[in-house]
Amino acid sequence: MSWRVTVRVRGRVERDTLDPLDAALDALERRTREAAEAPAARTIARRWAPEDQIAARAEVAGPERWRPAVRAGIDVRGDGSLQAWTGAPERRAVEPAKGEDAYAALRRALAAQS
User: Fold this and answer.
1) Phi-psi region of 11 (alpha: psi -120 to 50; beta: other; left: phi over 0)
2) Domain extent for 12
3) What is the 3-state secondary structure (H, E, C) of 6-46?
4) Whole-model pTM?
5) Four-residue CA torsion sign, 31, 53, 44, 15
6) In 3-state terms, what secondary structure has residue 110?
7) pLDDT, tens digit, for every residue of 24-61?
8) Strand partners, 14
9) Fewer Cβ close by (within 10 Å): the C or N end of the chain?
10) Contact (CB, 8 A) for 27 and 14
11) Half-sphere exposure of 7 toward its Cβ, with a 13 Å CA cutoff?
């Protein structure tokens, strides 16, 4: 079963297909860490607070190709903070437990779904 990883950073979209889920989550984590280190984008038309901007969005979907049973990911905000989420089209935030980062919270949420 393959998992699709889609990463959107400032208008650029990268897609990859990986197997198993752990490899897809590792790729998602690596790419969002890179995006979190990049400087925040500036907008011309409207002013946004850095914590309100989504600088990058990384999503893992699968294992089905046409109607994936699982859709989850991490949003990188303009201030470099991370927010894990599950579900689509309505995203539900995954709050980290004590001592957990967004990546561990996402893995926990996905383990609970399967």
Assistant:
1) left
2) 3-113
3) EEEECCEEEEEEECCHHHHHHHHHHHHHHHHHCCCCCCCCC
4) 0.83
5) positive
6) helix
7) 999 999 999 988 887 665 555 556 666 667 889 999 99
8) 7
9) C
10) no
11) 18
